[in-house]
TrEMBL record:
NCBIfam families to which the protein is assigned, alphabetical: CydC, CydD
UniProt domain ABC transporter: residue ranges: 351-573, 928-1151
Domain ABC transmembrane type-1: 20-297, 600-883
Name this protein carries in UniProt: ATP-binding cassette subfamily C protein CydCD
TM spans (from-to): 21-43, 55-74, 129-149, 155-173, 235-255, 261-278, 599-623, 629-648, 714-734, 740-757, 822-841
Any one Gene Ontology BP term: cell redox homeostasis
Bias type Low complexity, positions: 903-919
Region (Disordered) location: 902-923
Any one GO MF annotation of this record: ATP binding
The keyword Transmembrane is assigned to this record: yes
Listed InterPro entries: AAA+_ATPase, ABC1_TM_dom, ABC1_TM_sf, ABC_CydC/D, ABC_transporter-like_ATP-bd, ABC_transporter-like_CS, ABC_transptr_CydD, P-loop_NTPase
Taxonomic classification: Bacteria, Bacillati, Actinomycetota, Actinomycetes, Micrococcales
Highest taxon of the lineage: Bacteria
Organism field: Ornithinicoccus hortensis
GO cellular component: plasma membrane
Length: 1152
C-alpha cells in the first residue's frame, strides 16, 4: 500500500484537476499560515513591549480572514472533488465488470464492497489526504527558508529533525497496511453476509431462524469492530508519534532560542517568530499523519481495485483462460486481456459451441467437450434435457456470462438472454423494459406487453408506471416471465436466449407465448431451453443434453452415509455461545453508552488534549517573554517543565480519546445494526418486498454508520471544545478579567456559527442522504447482479443510467452542503480573528496601563489563537450532526413501517421467546382453513386475492391453479402468515390465527416459494436452517426424496460442499429437501415443478406427498397433469383474477 498511487490519476482523469486545485489551495493556505506566524510574533512583541498595535492587529485580522476565505473555498472543492472521483471510480468499475465473464471479475461480495464502501473511501483519500501530501511537500520548505532568514540556528534544528517524521510514519504505516487489509477482509465478509441475509430473510422467517441469524449478524459485526479498532489504534499511533516528535523538535528550537534570548544574543521578536514559525514546518507532515487512517482505507481500496481501474488492453487478443485453472471454471485474474480468445462474434455465422468444457468450482464438469451448431439464419432451436443436465449453464456460456475451461463459442451478433430468474429491478415496468431497449416508445412497449398477454393486468393498475419491488415484487411468477419475454421482444439483438420462458405460465396462456416465440424466430435465432414439450415440438432445430452424473435420481437409502461426519453439534453450540457472548457484550457496551460514562470520559480526554495545546502555546509565549528579561535560568524551570508536560500530554491524551471514542462508536454501531436487523424481521416479506433490498442495505450500513458516528464526530468534539474553551476563559478570568468576557463571547459566537451551519446544512444533508442512498442502492443492485444485467443490456451504459442519475443528484446535494459549510467556516475564522485581535488589544492596553506584566500579556494574547483549530473545526462538527440527523430520519423511515402481520404476543413475550424453540412437537397433524379471505399486498391498492374458501385438513392435498395474477401466491402468503387477511377468517385447528402467537403458527408451516433462496454456504448449512438438530442421515434422506442424491454424490465435498452454479431446478429441489427435512405438518409449495423436467417433477412430487401421509399439502401449479397421480386425491381450486367477471374460484375434487 503506497501513500499515493499515480495509477489513480492515470486511470481516472476526473481526479487530476481536483487534486491539482486542492494542492494549490493547500499550498496557499500554508503560505498564509507562515505569514500569520510572522504577524502573531509582531503583534505579541508589540503587546509585550508597549509598541503600536493597530498595524499588526489589522494585518493579522486580514490574514485570518484570508485564511477563512481560503478554507471556505477548500470546503467546496474538497467535497466536490471527493464525490466526483469516487463516482468516476465506481462507474468505471461497474462498467468494466459488466463487460467480462463472471470468472474475470471479483466475487459478488467483493464487487459489492469495492463499488460501495471502496469507492466511497476514496472521497477522504482524494479530498483530504492527497492535498495534505502536496502541502507537506511544499510548505515545510517555505517555512524552513523563512525561518533561516529569521534565525539560521533554529532552521538548522528543523532541517535535522524534520526527516525523522516521514521515517517514523513509514515504519508505523507498514503495520497499518497489514491491519487495514484484515479490516477490508472483515468488511467484505460483512457486506456479503448482509446482502445474503437480506435476500434470504423470507426463508429465515419461514423456518423461524431469523432471530437466530441476528446472533450471526452480531458476531460478524463484532469481528468487524475488532478489526477496525486494531487498525485505528495503529493509525492513531502514527498520528500521535508524529505529533510527539514535532513537539519535541519544537521544544528543542524553543530551548535554543530561549537560552540565546536569556543571554541577549537574539531579540524578543526573533525568538517569538522562531517558536511560532517552527511548528508550521512540522504541521503539514502532522496533518498527513492525521489523515493517514483515511488514506489507509482509500489506498487499500485503490490497491484492491488494481487492474480493474486500468481496463483491458485495447489490442489484447489473447485468451484469458491462459491465467485460469484449466477447465474448472474458477475465478481467474486475467489482467490486461481482451475477452475475445474464446468467444467470436461473426455476422452471418450460426450459433455454435466447439469443444466446450465447463465446471462450477468443486463440482464435476456439467459440460464436457460439447459441440453444437444451429442452422445459419433465423429460426427456433429447442434446448432440452433433464433438470441439471446443463441447459442453463450452456445458455450462460453462449451469452458470455461464464468463461469455459476449454472450447469456443460463436454467435452472429449481440445476444439478449431472458434467464429463469429474470432481472427485474425496483422501479416501474417502463424502467425494466427500457433496460433492453432504451429508445423504444411507450406505444411499442404496450404492444409488446399486449402480445404476451400482460397489458390488461397492468392497465388495471398504473400501466407502464406500475411500480415493482426487488425481483419483480408485485407481479406473480408467470407475470414476471411474460414481462421478461416482452423485454426480449423489444430488444434488437439478433440472438435471443430464453430459459424456460413458459415455466410459470398458466397452461391456457401458453399458446399465446408460443406464438410470440415463433414470431421472434422468424427474424432472429432463438435458442430456448424448455421442459414444455409443445414448445419444443415447434422448434426447427433441436439440441439435447444428456443428464450428467449429478442429475441421476435415486430412491432414499437410509443406510447411505456421506462419510463427512462432523462435530456439528459442537460447532452449533459454539456459535450460539459466541452469539450470546457477543450480544451480552454489546448490551453491556450499549448500557455504558446510554449512561454516558464512557462518552463523558472520551470528551474529558479530548478536552484535556485540546487544553494542553492551548496551555502549550500560552505558556511558551509567557516563557519566551520572561526569558527576554534575562532572569536566572533556575527561575524558568517550572515553566519549562510545564511546557514539556503540555507538549507530551497533548498527543498522548488525543490518542487515548480517539481510541476510546471510536471503540464506543463501533460497539454502538454493532448493537444498532443487530437491532435494526431485529426490526426488519417483522416487516418481511410483505413490507420490504416493494422496497429495494439495496435501500435496506443502505439503511443498515451507511445510514447506521452516520448515526453511530455522532459519538466520534459530534458528541466528543463538542464536549472537548466546550471544556477547553471554558478552561481558557477561566484562565483569563484570573489573569485579565476584562478579557474573559470577550473570549467567552467568542466561544459562544463560534458555537452559534456552528449551529447556524447545521441549520444551513440540514436541508442539504436530507437531500444528500437520500441521493447517497440512491447511489448506494443502484451500485448495490448492479454489483450484486452483474451477470443478470449483462444478460439483458446491450450497452453497459444503459445499466448505469439510473446510477448516473443518482450520482448527478448526489453531486448537486454535495455542492449545496459544501456551500453551507463554506459559509459557516468563513464565519468561524472571522470570529477567531475578531476575538484574537480584540483580546490582544486588551492585553496591550493592560500592559501599557501597568496592570498586567509583559509575560502574562503575551499569554493572554496567544490564548485565543491557540483555540484556532477547535473553533474553526466546529462547522464540521455541526455538519456531521446535521448528516446524522438526516440519516436517522431515513433509517427510521425504513424500520418504522407497520408490519403486514400482527403478532398477538406482548412485546416482552415476543422478545423473550425469540430464540426459544417452538413448543409444538414436529409433525403434529394440523388443519388450516380459509373462509371468505381477501388480501392485498399494498396497504392501499387493489385487491390481490378475492374471497377464497380453502380447507387443508391433515392428509389432504389442495391444488391452486388459475391464470397469472389470480392471487395464488397471495393465498399462500396468507396461509404462511406473511400477510394478514383483509377480510374473512383464517383458522388453524379451529382457532383464529390472529389469536395464536406468530412463531407458533409459522412453526407448523414449511414454505417453498416460487423463487427459493439458497444461502452462500454449504449444502448442510442450507438444509439445517429448517431443522438444526437433524442428523446427516436425515439430511441425505431429504435430499434423496427431492431427487438430489446423485447431485450430492457428484459434489467433491458432499454435505460440506459450497453451493455454486445451481440451476433453477436444483435450487427448487434444494428448497423442497429443506421443507421435507423440517418435518412440519403443513407444506405450502409455490410452483415447485416449474423448472423440472416431467420425469423428475413426477418423481419429486410423488416422494414429497407420500413421505408423510398425514401432512396437509397446498400447492400452486399451472400444470395439474404433473401433479395428479392415480393414488392421490387432490382438491383443485381454480382461481380467477379479482377483476375478472364471474366466480373467482371453482372447486373440483379430482383423482388422478
Amino acid at each position: 500500500m503506497r501513500p499515493f498511487d499515480p495509477a489513480l490519476l492515470r486511470a481516472v482523469p476526473a481526479a487530476r484537476r481536483p487534486v491539482a486545485a486542492l494542492g494549490a489551495l493547500g499550498t496557499a493556505g500554508g503560505l498564509l499560515a507562515v505569514g500569520q506566524a510572522l504577524l502573531v510574533a509582531w503583534l505579541v512583541t508589540a503587546v509585550a513591549t508597549g509598541g503600536p498595535l493597530r498595524v499588526p492587529a489589522l494585518a493579522l485580522l486580514g490574514v485570518v480572514l484570508a485564511r477563512g476565505l481560503l478554507a471556505a473555498l477548500a470546503e467546496r472543492v474538497t467535497a466536490s472533488a471527493g464525490q466526483r472521483v469516487s463516482a468516476a471510480v465506481r462507474r468505471q468499475l461497474l462498467r468494466r465488470w459488466l463487460t467480462v465473464p463472471e470468472e474475470l471479475r471479483p466475487a459478488p461480495e467483493v464487487a459489492l464492497t469495492r463499488a460501495t464502501e471502496g469507492a466511497g473511501s476514496l472521497e477522504p483519500y482524494v479530498g483530504r489526504y492527497l492535498p495534505a501530501l502536496v502541502t507537506a511537500a511544499v510548505v515545510p520548505v517555505l517555512a524552513v527558508v523563512t525561518l533561516a532568514v529569521v534565525d539560521v540556528w533554529s532552521a538548522l534544528v528543523v532541517v535535522l529533525t524534520l526527516p525523522l517524521m516521514p521515517l517514523f510514519a513509514a515504519l508505523i504505516g507498514k503495520h497499518t497496511q497489514d491491519e487495514t487489509e484484515k479490516r477490508w477482509a472483515a468488511l467484505t465478509t460483512l457486506s456479503g453476509h448482509f446482502l445474503d441475509v437480506v435476500r434470504g430473510l423470507p426463508t429465515l422467517v419461514n423456518y423461524g431462524r431469523a432471530e437466530h441469524q441476528a446472533g450471526i449478524v452480531a458476531e460478524v459485526g463484532e469481528r468487524h469492530r475488532r478489526a477496525t479498532v486494531r487498525t485505528l489504534r495503529t493509525a492513531f499511533l502514527s498520528t500521535a508519534a508524529l505529533e510527539l516528535l514535532a513537539t519535541i523538535s519544537v521544544a528543542m528550537v524553543a530551548v535554543g532560542v530561549g537560552l540565546r534570548l536569556a543571554v541577549g544574543w537574539v531579540d524578543l521578536q526573533v525568538a517569538l517568530t522562531a517558536i511560532l514559525l517552527a511548528p508550521e514546518a512540522y504541521w503539514p507532515v502532522r496533518r498527513v499523519g492525521a489523515e493517514f487512517h483515511n488514506a489507509a482505507d482509500g489506498a487499500a481500496a485503490l490497491e484492491a481495485m488494481g487492474d480493474d481501474l486500468g481496463g483491458f488492453a485495447a489490442s489484447g487478443a489473447g485468451d484469458p483462460r491462459d491465467d485460469a485453472p484449466a477447465g474448472d471454471g474458477g475465478r481467474a485474474v486475467a489482467a490486461g486481456c481482451a475477452v475475445v480468445g474464446w468467444r467470436h462474434v461473426v455476422p452471418g455465422a450460426p450459433v455454435s459451441v466447439e469443444g466446450v468444457r465447463f465446471a462450477h468450482p468443486g463440482r464435476a464438469a456439467v459440460l464436457d467437450g460439447l459441440s453444437l451448431h444451429t442452422p445459419v439464419g433465423p429460426g427456433l432451436t429447442a434446448l432440452t434435457g433433464a433438470s441439471g443436465a446443463g441447459k442453463s449453464t450452456l445458455l450462460d456460456v453462449l451469452a458470455g456470462l461464464h468463461l469455459p475451461g476449454t472450447g469456443s463459442v460463436t454467435v452472429p451478433g449481440d445476444v439478449h438472454y431472458a434467464r429463469q430468474r429474470p432481472l427485474l429491478v425496483p422501479g416501474t415496468v417502463r424502467d425494466n423494459l427500457l433496460l433492453a431497449a432504451p429508445n423504444v416508445t411507450d406505444g411499442e412497449t404496450v404492444f409488446a406487453l399486449t402480445a404476451v398477454g400482460l397489458w390488461p393486468a397492468l392497465a388495471a393498475r398504473e400501466g407502464l408506471d406500475t411500480v415493482l419491488g426487488d425481483d419483480g415484487f408485485g407481479l406473480s411468477a408467470g407475470q414476471r416471465a411474460r414481462l421478461s419475454l416482452a423485454r426480449a421482444r423489444l430488444a434488437s439483438a439478433p440472438v435471443l436466449l430464453l430459459d424456460e420462458p413458459t415455466a410459470h405460465v398458466a397452461a391456457r396462456d401458453k399458446p399465446r407465448l408460443h406464438e410470440v416465440i415463433l414470431e421472434l424466430a422468424e427474424h432472429r435465432r432463438v435458442v430456448v431451453a424448455t421442459h414444455d414439450t409443445a414448445l419444443a415440438g415447434m422448434a426447427h432445430d433441436h439440441w439435447s443434453l444428456l443428464p450428467s452424473a449429478e442429475g441421476d435420481h435415486e430412491a432414499a437409502r437410509p443406510d447411505v452415509r456421506t462419510g463427512m461426519e462432523t462435530a456439528r453439534s459442537d460447532v452449533r453450540t459454539g456459535v450460539e455461545a459466541a452469539r450470546s457472548d457477543v450480544r451480552t457484550g454489546m448490551e453491556t457496551a450499549r448500557s455504558d453508552v446510554r449512561s454516558g460514562r464512557r462518552v463523558l470520559w472520551a470528551g474529558l480526554l479530548g478536552g484535556l488534549s485540546t487544553g494542553c495545546g492551548v496551555a502549550l502555546t500560552a505558556a511558551s509565549g509567557w516563557l519566551i517573554v520572561q526569558a527576554s528579561f534575562q532572569p536566572v535560568i533556575l527561575t524558568l524551570l517550572v515553566a519549562i517543565v510545564g511546557v514539556r508536560a503540555f507538549g507530551i500530554g497533548r498527543p498522548l491524551l488525543r490518542y487515548a480519546e480517539r481510541v476510546v471514542s471510536h471503540d464506543i462508536a463501533l460497539a454502538d454501531l454493532a448493537w444498532r445494526r443487530s437491532r435494526a436487523y431485529d426490526r426488519l424481521i417483522p416487516l418481511t416479506p410483505a413490507r420490504l418486498g416493494r422496497r429495494s433490498r439495496a435501500d435496506v442495505l443502505t439503511a443498515v450500513v451507511q445510514d447506521l454508520d452516520d448515526v453511530a458516528d455522532r459519538t466520534v464526530r459530534v458528541t466528543v468534539p463538542l464536549l472537548a471544545a466546550a471544556f477547553a474553551s471554558g478552561l481558557a476563559v477561566l484562565v483569563l478570568l484570573f489573569v485579565l478579567p476584562t478579557a474573559a468576557p470577550v473570549l467567552a463571547l467568542g466561544t459562544l459566537a463560534a458555537f452559534a456559527v456552528g449551529r447556524l451551519g447545521q441549520r444551513l446544512e440540514a436541508a442539504a444533508h436530507r437531500a444528500l442522504v437520500t441521493a447517497r442512498g440512491r447511489v448506494h442502492a443502484e451500485a448495490t443492485a448492479v454489483a450484486g447482479q452483474l451477470s443478470a444485467y449483462r444478460a439483458v443490456v446491450a450497452d453497459p451504459g444503459t445499466a448505469l443510467t439510473p446510477l448516473d442519475s443518482a450520482t448527478t443528484a448526489q453531486a448537486a446535494a454535495v455542492r449545496r452542503a459544501a456551500s453551507a459549510r463554506a459559509v459557516a467556516t468563513g464565519l468561524a475564522w472571522l470570529v477567531l480573528g475578531a476575538t484574537a485581535t480584540t483580546v490582544a488589544w486588551q492585553a496591550g492596553t493592560a500592559f501599557a496601563a501597568g496592570t498586567l506584566s509583559a509575560p502574562f500579556a503575551a499569554l493572554v494574547a496567544l490564548t485565543p489563537l491557540a483555540l484556532a483549530d477547535t473553533w474553526t473545526g466546529l462547522p464540521e462538527v455541526f455538519g456531521a450532526r446535521a448528516r446524522a440527523a438526516a440519516a436517522a430520519t431515513r433509517l427510521e423511515d425504513v424500520l418504522a413501517q407497520e408490519p403486514a402481520v400482527v403478532d398477538p404476543r406482548p412485546a416482552a413475550s415476543a422478545d423473550s421467546s425469540a430464540t426459544a424453540p417452538a413448543a409444538r412437537p414436529r409433525h403434529t397433524a394440523v388443519s388450516a382453513e380459509l373462509s371468505g379471505v381477501t388480501a392485498r399486498w399494498a396497504e392501499e391498492g387493489p385487491i390481490d386475492l378475492a374471497a377464497l374458501d380453502l380447507c387443508a385438513a391433515p392428509g389432504s392435498r389442495v391444488l391452486l391453479t388459475g391464470p397469472n395474477g389470480a392471487g395464488k401466491s397471495t393465498a399462500l402468503a396468507v396461509l404462511a402468515r406473511h400477510l394478514d387477511a383483509l377480510s374473512g377468517s383464517y383458522r388453524q385447528d379451529g382457532t383464529e390465527v390472529n389469536a395464536l402467537p406468530l412463531a407458533h403458527t409459522r412453526s407448523t408451516l414449511a414454505v417453498v416459494d416460487d423463487e427459493p433462496h439458497v444461502f452462500a454456504g454449504t449444502v448442510r448449512a442450507n438444509l439445517l436452517l429448517a431443522r438444526p438438530d437433524a442428523t446427516d442421515e436425515e439430511v441425505c434422506r431429504a435430499l434423496a426424496a427431492a431427487g438430489l442424491r446423485g447431485w450430492l454424490d457428484a459434489h467433491r465435498g458432499g454435505l460440506d460442499a459450497t453451493l455454486t452454479g445451481l440451476s433453477g431446478g436444483e435450487r427448487t429441489r434444494l428448497a423442497i429437501a429443506r421443507a421435507i427435512l423440517s418435518d412440519r405438518p403443513v407444506l405450502l409449495l409455490d410452483e415447485p415443478t416449474a423448472h423440472l423436467d416431467r420425469p423428475t417433477a413426477r418423481s419429486v412430487l410423488h416422494d414429497l406427498v407420500t413421505s408423510a401421509p398425514d401432512r396437509a399439502v397446498v400447492m400452486v401449479s399451472h400444470e395439474p397433469v404433473l401433479v395428479l397421480s392415480p393414488d392421490t386425491t387432490w382438491d383443485v381450486l381454480q382461481l380467477e383474477r379479482p377483476d375478472a367477471p364471474g366466480p373467482v374460484a371453482e372447486h373440483r375434487a379430482l383423482v388422478g
